[in-house]
Automatic annotation (TrEMBL):
<dbReference type="GO" id="GO:0006006">
    <property type="term" value="P:glucose metabolic process"/>
</dbReference>
<comment type="function">
    <text>Catalyzes the oxidation of glucose 6-phosphate to 6-phosphogluconolactone.</text>
</comment>
<feature type="active site" description="Proton acceptor">
    <location>
        <position position="234"/>
    </location>
</feature>
<dbReference type="Pfam" id="PF00479">
    <property type="entry name" value="G6PD_N"/>
</dbReference>
<protein>
    <recommendedName>
        <fullName>Glucose-6-phosphate 1-dehydrogenase</fullName>
        <ecNumber>1.1.1.49</ecNumber>
    </recommendedName>
</protein>
<dbReference type="GO" id="GO:0005829">
    <property type="term" value="C:cytosol"/>
</dbReference>
<feature type="binding site">
    <location>
        <position position="176"/>
    </location>
    <ligand>
        <name>substrate</name>
    </ligand>
</feature>
<dbReference type="GO" id="GO:0004345">
    <property type="term" value="F:glucose-6-phosphate dehydrogenase activity"/>
</dbReference>
<keyword id="KW-0521">NADP</keyword>
<feature type="binding site">
    <location>
        <position position="229"/>
    </location>
    <ligand>
        <name>substrate</name>
    </ligand>
</feature>
<feature type="domain" description="Glucose-6-phosphate dehydrogenase NAD-binding">
    <location>
        <begin position="6"/>
        <end position="181"/>
    </location>
</feature>
<keyword id="KW-0313">Glucose metabolism</keyword>
<feature type="binding site">
    <location>
        <position position="210"/>
    </location>
    <ligand>
        <name>substrate</name>
    </ligand>
</feature>
<comment type="pathway">
    <text>Carbohydrate degradation; pentose phosphate pathway; D-ribulose 5-phosphate from D-glucose 6-phosphate (oxidative stage): step 1/3.</text>
</comment>
<dbReference type="InterPro" id="IPR022674">
    <property type="entry name" value="G6P_DH_NAD-bd"/>
</dbReference>
<feature type="binding site">
    <location>
        <begin position="86"/>
        <end position="87"/>
    </location>
    <ligand>
        <name>NADP(+)</name>
    </ligand>
</feature>
<feature type="binding site">
    <location>
        <position position="142"/>
    </location>
    <ligand>
        <name>NADP(+)</name>
    </ligand>
</feature>
């Protein structure tokens, strides 16, 4: 099978940090079809060789096993090409057309990794240049819009010229091995299904914590904020993976139908819940890695008067028969105490205690997404230090133990990273791990009341860099009698 992968934004941050390394790993693993071209597109005037040198210079900065040897890079570089285009100029698309017609590849992937403001224009011009044939697939990066109306406008423009089956809206969290294993664990095994419900689960916590600040992306982040950057997409996709019913088969639409139902079942916001169950914060100066770091408003590119949230904590519920009454907590932020992304499913305690157990110890399933991928099942087991006292066996004491599946250790170098998995899926035309337009709209619909109410409230609550966010986040969960995992 031959393919052309056109990377709009081929010199950008995403291309450099994620896409090129993922394509190289796919090449190294032998999974990339041999007969392929990867065409970087941007406005700089570069030859193919200059583009290859640019990519090589960036790979040279990579440490460890992920860095290609000179021989490996030379082979990979033979796939790389460059096309100078200004995507806002319709005339430039004729040159893209000429390049693609050189060989009429079986599959043409157009990966739109440029500013979201260009998405509509790019898709319209692809069509105007006659490049939207049946073999064309278009990948759209997030964020797709900044609210429901703008998301609908982009999707309407896209769907006018492309069939939904040609559109790959990427959410790289769905490509993470641990998320795919969450699906496998739930729908490939019978073990958890009987207890995957309100009668057995006390609460679910989703944490996506970053210890870094906004780095060099202050200007972008200040227009976006944590709700749009992380909650509307990544966190809600994780909610779907946890909450969805078993699909009738493994086809993309069967899976996406079930995810859509979860989004539709999320409890709508009310004035009361907007006040009590939606906390936002913004980091101030603090300590990270033992060093003083500036507050958000002092970061380069950020408005010194900014009201943009760098932290969000939400409490919601999936209002259906399986989940009614089970609190679902979502928390994400920058400059938090550690880099840690995980889902915790906390099970209810035993109905009657015959053992002594440490306070608050319960069974829980932890799906680790970052920094390591893996699953942990927290059990209570017989402690090994029971002593006889006064000639009697003391009441049996339990201690927490973990059954640990660490994908890095288990699968090592064979492990396929998120972008690698998703890029291969696009080339192969598999839509299972991509987001359909109605799912995306429903997610925007759910976050829209938060956007609206935050536009006119008192602003985000301050929290010191290097902590777990404003104390109101802990107070929110404590009102239900629970606590975040690091407080347990
Ligand atoms: P970036 O570093 O600013 O790169 C933008 C790329 O687009 C550059 O190659 C730029 O090259 C090119 N470009 C801009 N205007 C162009 C035009 N008119 N014609 C042709 N090329 C043009 O942005 P990024 O961080 O890579 O982000 C790209 C997209 O991915 C955005 O939608 C972003 O939201 C999304 N995303 C990024 C990340 C990330 O970690 N970076 C993560 C998730 C999603 P020239 O300026 O030289 O033309």
């Amino acid at each position: 099978m031959s393919f052309d992968l056109v990377l709009f934004g081929g010199t950008g941050d995403l291309a450099w940090r994620k896409l090129m390394p993922a394509l190289f790993q796919a090449f190294r693993h032998g999974s990339l079809p041999k007969d392929g071209r990867i065409v970087g597109v941007a406005r700089d005037d570069l030859s193919d060789d200059q583009y290859r040198e640019l990519i090589q210079s960036r790979f040279n900065a990579v440490e460890g096993a992920k860095r290609p040897s000179a021989e490996e890079f030379e082979k990979f570089a033979s796939l790389l090409h460059y096309l100078r285009m200004d995507l806002s100029k319709p005339a430039d698309y004729a040159r893209l057309s000429d390049l693609l017609k050189q060989r009429n590849a079986d599959t043409v992937v157009m990966y739109v990794a440029t500013a979201p403001a260009l998405f509509t224009q790019v898709v319209e011009q692809i069509a105007a240049a006659g490049l939207n044939g049946p073999s064309t697939r278009v990948v759209l990066e997030k964020p797709l819009g900044h609210d429901l109306a703008s998301n609908r406008a982009i999707n309407a423009a896209v769907c006018k010229v492309l069939d939904e089956k040609q559109v790959f809206r990427i959410d790289h969290y769905l490509g993470k091995p641990s998320v795919q294993n969450l699906f496998a664990m739930r729908f490939g095994n019978a073990l958890f299904e009987p207890i995957w419900r309100r009668e057995h689960i006390a609460n679910i916590q989703i944490t996506i914590a970053e210890d870094l600040g906004v780095e060099k992306r202050g200007a972008f982040y200040d227009q976006t904020g944590a709700l749009r950057d992380m909650v509307q997409n990544h966190a809600l996709q994780l909610v779907c993976a946890i909450g969805m019913e078993p699909p009738i088969n493994s086809h993309a639409d069967a899976i996406r139908d079930e995810k859509l139902k979860v989004l539709r079942a999320l409890k709508p916001w009310t004035p009361e819940t907007l006040g009590l169950h939606a906390i936002r914060g913004q980091y101030t100066a603090g300590t990270a890695y033992g060093e003083r770091v500036p507050g958000y408003k002092d970061e380069p590119g950020v408005d010194p008067e900014s009201r943009t949230e760098t932290f969000v904590a939400l409490r919601t519920e999936i209002a259906n028969w399986r989940w009614a009454g089970v609190p679902l907590y979502i928390r994400t932020g920058k400059r938090l105490a550690s880099r840690d992304a995980r889902i915790e499913v906390n099970f209810r305690p035993t109905p009657h205690a015959i053992y002594r157990a440490p306070a608050g110890a319960v069974n829980k399933l932890v799906i680790n997404l970052q920094p390591r991928d893996g699953l942990e099942l927290h059990m209570l087991a017989q402690a090994q230090d029971n002593r006889r006292s006064n000639g009697h066996q003391s009441a049996a004491q339990l201690a927490p133990v973990q059954l640990d599946l660490d994908f890095d250790k288990r699968f090592g170098a064979e492990r396929v990273g998120a972008y690698e998995r998703l890029l291969l899926d696009v080339i192969d035309g598999r839509l299972n791990l991509f987001v359909r337009s109605d799912e995306q709209e429903e997610a925007w619909r759910w976050v829209e009341p938060l956007i609206d109410s935050w536009a006119s409230d008192g602003g985000p609550r301050p929290y010191a860099a290097g902590t777990w966010g404003p104390s109101a986040s802990s107070a929110m969960i404590a009102r239900d009698g629970f606590s975040w995992s690091e407080e347990q």
